[in-house]
């Protein structure tokens, strides 16, 4: 006999459907329904609520072989075949993280195809692979942030068994794995949770209705979220999670759900005997997120730092639109490189108010912030999904890489940036409902038309070609300037790993000098100097030393160094 359980406090009657046969269920006082039924391991099952004939998938479904609108299938985590018994794990702080989207990382777009590229990642020198969401969502392809069944693995990628093979293969090569988890909203297609119980809140966020983590009857919803998070790390051996847009988790309770999750993650890490990391995406610039719990913080391991991205990108590219308006000067870049947050109780012209709070750099190491030259957001949420490599020359890309990988922050690459991939990463979806598909495409065009773009230029998210255009072209890796840039990235990552000055996690190790008019900037880390010329014209910088690594041909004199336009040299002070 198999026990089936589902939390469904809303309906007055719940029936279990197993391969088309209905079975009565018994309700407990806490809103859980139970039934013991003799069912084969591969049975399709679901729940019929009240008099609605539609059989709904299990909210805690482990597998959706026929998509998010159909019946579920059990999956035994204990039967998974693992070979990573000797994997000791690794902490994320100070690591090099590589963000990728399974569907576009390879031509096949599966976990098994991605395994074939893991040796490349090892040679590149990265420490962590961060997977964009792999939970189940409607359609065959999409970014994954419209997930509706958080406990199951997207079947077109390879389902739960494929994820097991991928994580196991990563660990065999010394690569840790982060999984992107979205708990702030649910997708518009296949979200049946509100039929079962009070999963949604009275509030909303930019992506739809919020999740009920603080309203009435929210305790079980919080357990649903935390149970899902722990499951990725326990059942799928993930080394941590990237938590999407945690600023959209509106929690007015005394113990914030992120603090609760961090506490339970630490407990699970102790049980498993390996480190587990939580990396949050937050728009708040609030240090309390990454402050230890014994010092009044929430205890999250690390967070993305968009200010660093904005400061680097605007200084190099010259872009100033939207939320880039307060960035662009070398003074802003220097401030951000030394303090992590640029907006730290300062006025944000984009928000029309003060924003952020200063980071206590004497107590919180720089490795609790993630720095990057681009992310899926900073590429895919542009109107055309164009990468920096489609607008900047290789020297500018090398400068951005040197500033980020030479910084004291934990660093992250977005797939393909290391060779200056020419393929875009555009916003794509495959909603099966015609009305939703049309609304998604029209909404995307209208959004960017308001900012002056020609609506006809905006890629249609539902067009399969938008998805196919976003796949990496691996033939570029060996070609010309792509290969040269890849070599530079490899050397930078190796330098970061081997130089003790670059391993110092404290910002008191960092100094920045610059000349706004001549457009050069020097990031100093101990005996190493990262000297960048952001101008198209040659400049002479009042600094000399031994060349450790460079893009371009620096001419080092007794007391100065001449740099070509758009070039960078890493010097060791003599």
TrEMBL record:
CDD domains: AmyAc_GTHase (cd11325), E_set_MTHase_like_N (cd02853)
Basic and acidic residues: compositionally biased ranges: 56-74
GO cellular component, one term: cytoplasm
Keywords, comma-separated and alphabetical: Carbohydrate metabolism, Cytoplasm, Glycosidase, Hydrolase
Pathway: Glycan biosynthesis; trehalose biosynthesis
Record site: Transition state stabilizer: 377
Catalytic activity: hydrolysis of (1->4)-alpha-D-glucosidic linkage in 4-alpha-D-[(1->4)-alpha-D-glucanosyl]n trehalose to yield trehalose and (1->4)-alpha-D-glucan
Residue sites binding substrate per the record: 242-247, 306-310, 376-381
Coiled-coil regions, chain positions: none
UniProt keyword Zinc, yes or no: no
Enzyme active site: 244 (nucleophile), 281 (proton donor)
Enzyme class: hydrolase
Annotated region (Disordered), positions in chain: 56-75
GO BP terms: trehalose biosynthetic process
Keyword Cytoplasm in record: yes
InterPro entries referenced in this protein's UniProt entry, alphabetically: DUF3459, GH, GH13_cat_dom, Ig-like_fold, Ig_E-set, Trehalose_TreZ, Trehalose_TreZ_E-set_sf
Single GO MF descriptor: 4-alpha-D-(1->4)-alpha-D-glucanotrehalose trehalohydrolase activity
Origin superkingdom: Bacteria
EC number(s) stated in the UniProt entry for this protein: 3.2.1.141
A Pfam short name: Alpha-amylase
Localization annotation: Cytoplasm
Ranges for domain Glycosyl hydrolase family 13 catalytic: 76-444
Family from the record: Belongs to the glycosyl hydrolase 13 family.
NCBIfam families xrefs: trehalose_TreZ (TIGR02402)
Name under which the protein is recorded: Malto-oligosyltrehalose trehalohydrolase
């Amino acid at each position: 006999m198999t026990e089936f359980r589902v939390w469904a406090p809303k309906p007055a009657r719940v029936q279990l459907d197993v391969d088309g046969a209905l079975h009565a269920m018994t309700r407990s006082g806490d809103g859980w329904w139970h039934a013991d039924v003799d069912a084969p391991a591969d049975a399709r099952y679901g729940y019929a609520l009240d008099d609605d004939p539609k059989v709904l998938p299990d909210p805690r479904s482990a597998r959706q072989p026929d998509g998010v609108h159909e019946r579920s299938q059990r999956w035994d985590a204990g039967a998974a075949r693992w070979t990573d018994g000797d994997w000791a794990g690794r902490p994320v702080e100070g690591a090099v993280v590589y963000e990728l989207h399974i569907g576009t990382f390879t031509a096949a777009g599966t976990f098994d195809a991605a395994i074939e590229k893991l040796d490349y990642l090892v040679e590149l020198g990265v420490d962590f692979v961060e997977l964009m969401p792999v939970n189940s969502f409607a359609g065959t392809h999409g970014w994954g942030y419209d997930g509706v069944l958080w406990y199951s693995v997207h079947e077109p990628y390879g389902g739960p068994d494929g994820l097991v093979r991928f994580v196991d293969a990563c660990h065999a090569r010394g690569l840790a794995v982060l999984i992107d988890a979205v708990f702030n909203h649910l997708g518009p297609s296949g979200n049946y949770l509100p039929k079962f119980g009070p999963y949604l809140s009275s509030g909303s966020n930019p992506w739809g209705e919020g999740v009920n983590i603080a309203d009435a009857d929210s305790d079980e919803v919080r357990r649903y979220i935390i149970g899902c998070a722990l499951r990725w790390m326990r059942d799928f051996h993930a080394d941590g999670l990237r938590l999407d847009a945690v600023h959209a988790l509106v929690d007015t309770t005394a113990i914030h759900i992120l603090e609760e999750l961090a506490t339970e993650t630490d407990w699970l890490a102790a049980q498993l005997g390996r480190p587990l990391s939580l990396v949050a995406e937050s728009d708040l610039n609030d240090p309390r997120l990454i402050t230890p719990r014994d010092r009044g913080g929430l205890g999250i391991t690390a967070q993305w730092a968009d200010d660093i991205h904005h400061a680097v990108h605007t200084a190099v590219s010259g872009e100033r639109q939207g939320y880039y308006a307060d960035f662009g000067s070398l003074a802003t870049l220097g401030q951000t490189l030394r303090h992590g947050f640029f907006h730290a109780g300062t006025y944000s012209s984009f928000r029309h108010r003060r924003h952020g709070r200063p980071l206590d750099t004497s107590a919180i190491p720089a490795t609790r912030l993630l720095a990057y030259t681009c992310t899926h957001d900073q590429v895919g949420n542009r109107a055309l999904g164009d990468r920096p490599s489609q607008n900047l020359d290789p020297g500018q890309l090398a400068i951005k890489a040197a500033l980020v990988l030479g910084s004291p922050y934990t660093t992250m690459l977005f797939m393909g940036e290391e060779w200056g991939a020419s393929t875009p990463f555009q916003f794509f979806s495959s909603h099966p409902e015609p009305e939703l598909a049309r609304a998604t495409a029209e909404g995307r065009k209208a959004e960017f038309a308001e900012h002056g773009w020609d609506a006809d230029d905006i890629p249609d998210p539902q067009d399969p070609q938008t998805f196919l255009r976003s796949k990496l072209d691996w033939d570029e890796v060996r070609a010309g300037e792509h290969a040269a840039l890849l070599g530079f990235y490899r050397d930078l990552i190796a330098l970061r790993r081997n130089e003790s000055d670059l391993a110092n996690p404290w910002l008191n190790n960092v100094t920045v000098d610059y000349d706004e008019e001549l457009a050069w900037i020097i990031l100093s880390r101990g005996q190493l100097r990262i000297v960048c010329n952001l101008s198209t014209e040659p400049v002479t910088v009042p600094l000399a030393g031994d060349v450790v690594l460079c893009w371009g041909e620096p001419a080092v004199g007794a007391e100065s160094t001449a740099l070509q336009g758009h070039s960078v040299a890493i010097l060791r002070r003599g």
